[in-house]
Write a structure and sequence with these properties.
about 110 residues; Nuclear Transport Factor 2, Chain: A; 5 strands
């Protein structure tokens, strides 16, 4: 989990739809979020399905899965990261409800 201190800027701000209200800036909350996800889903795998980078923005579509909790995972997330000085300083993510349990592929 210490890699979060390398990847996230000290003023990191997460504006994602799943972020608790009033979350202070900095990497600690993002690191705790991932830590909690790993506790809840110990077999968590994140697959990058697409990536676009331009200037200081990176857009990533990734899918979170856990073989022990397929009904609760299998969700795609689109994230937009802002990068400065080789660190993530801002993020906005949206979980794709249609992607749950493969519904996205059926469309």
């Amino acid at each position: 989990m210490n890699i979060g201190n390398v990847n996230f800027a000290s003023n990191f701000a997460d504006h994602g739809t799943d972020v608790p209200a009033g979350m202070p800036p900095g990497p600690a909350e993002a690191i705790a979020y991932v830590g909690d996800a790993l506790k809840r889903f110990p077999d968590l795998h994140v697959t990058i399905e697409g990536l676009i980078a331009e200037d200081d923005r990176v857009v990533v579509r990734n899918r979170w899965t856990d073989s022990q909790a397929p009904e609760e995972t299998g969700v795609s997330r689109d994230s937009i990261w802002r990068i400065a000085a080789r660190r993530i300083c801002g993020a906005m993510g949206v979980f794709g409800a249609a992607a749950r349990s493969g519904e996205e592929e059926k469309k």
